[in-house]
Task: structure prediction
Amino acid sequence: MRIFKNRWFAKFAKDEDISDEKLCKAVKDAENGLGDKAFFVYGFPKNAQDNITKADVREYKELAKITFALCDEKLEKLIQTGAFMAVTCYE
Result:
């Protein structure tokens, strides 16, 4: 499975000390039936926010439709521009 994080999430993960290894484990734990790609696009420390709102859920579902529909060529261009980064997993 290919795993990606957007630029915003990469900064969040660095600030919160969330390693690529932890992201890989999270995907592996949730992997049943996901497909061949996973994207990390938003996160927050639980002490800063309880949960996301219903409006947030709607927006993230719409973003998911767009993101998962990216063809490999467009995804590679987004990686080249730094909008997304590949997560490196070591097993």
